[in-house]
Amino acid sequence: MKFDNLRVVVTGASREFGRALAIGFAHLGAEVFVSARTVEAAERTLADVMGSARERIHAFGCDLSRPAEIREFARRVGEHTGRVDLLVNNGARWLDGVELEDASDDQIVETIESTAGGTVLMVKHFLPLLRASQRPDIVNMVAVRGPDTAGMSTAHDAFYAAKSAQAGFADILSHRLRSSGVRVFSLYPPDFSTSDPRSVEWEGTGGDPDEKLTTQALFECIVYAVEQPRDCFIRSFHFEPR
């Protein structure tokens, strides 16, 4: 299969895009290590996988706002495999509210810690496994980062702050890891359809210009980037809203 023997780690894999990534890579032959805030949530993704691909998914609980859980997640993945070829930083704590006062202090701190801090710590603790790979890649699902997208979202200011921090980290990481062969790229899509990999929608991209960007299209962008020769560094994918 296309990604037979590829080792992939996906955070925030219990629903929507993260879940679709995990299932999509498993069906392409990769061995996938998925995390969600609780192991029960991660195991729901495992239960949805069809056929032999189910045997290639391993579920873990990991709250990205808790450093000890990230360290433990990396340690446990290291017990299964001596390398990671692709780390997908998809997990982020969504926070709703168009007014700064809409969220409590604890919610704001947790959002920033899980999205920005969680991404930094995931890379830090998985870097030894990535460096053991002959084809290491890091993908960051940034999506939103600044005021140019604020009018189209109900996300809280703290969520934007966290995403901007994540984007800044990805930019500097791309430069600093390039010499060691670790590629880093980020996705900046607008609002998109979170279709299920088992559904009819997953089988075809939308041809109507009024339709949303699809999960399948984003997944194919990641697959495309990962398949490129190792001297090809794609820093980011930016998508125009329809």
General description of the model:
The protein is 40% helix and 15% strand. With 242 residues, the protein is α/β, with parallel strands linked by helices. It has a single domain, classed as Rossmann fold, CATH 3.40.50.720. The strands form 2 sheets. It has a 7-stranded parallel beta sheet with strand order 3-2-1-4-5-6-9, sandwiched between helices. The chain has a two-stranded parallel sheet with strand order 7-8. The two termini are 33 Å apart. The model has no long low-confidence stretch (mean pLDDT 87).
Brief digest:
It holds the Pfam family adh_short. This protein has 242 residues and is α/β, with parallel strands linked by helices.
Helix content class: 40-55%
- In angstroms, what is the radius of gyration? 17 Å
Envelope shape:
globular
Order of helices and strands: EHEHEHEHEHEEEHE
Which structural class matches the secondary elements?
A: alpha/beta
N-end to C-end Cα span: 33 Å
CATH class equals Alpha Beta
The residue-averaged pLDDT reads 87
- Low-pLDDT ranges: none
Strand order of the largest sheet: 3-2-1-4-5-6-9
β-strand percent reads 15-25%
Main beta sheet strand tally, sense and closure: 7 strands, parallel
Family: Belongs to the short-chain dehydrogenases/reductases (SDR) family.
Keywords: Oxidoreductase
GO cellular component, one term: membrane
Protein name: NAD(P)-dependent dehydrogenase, short-chain alcohol dehydrogenase family
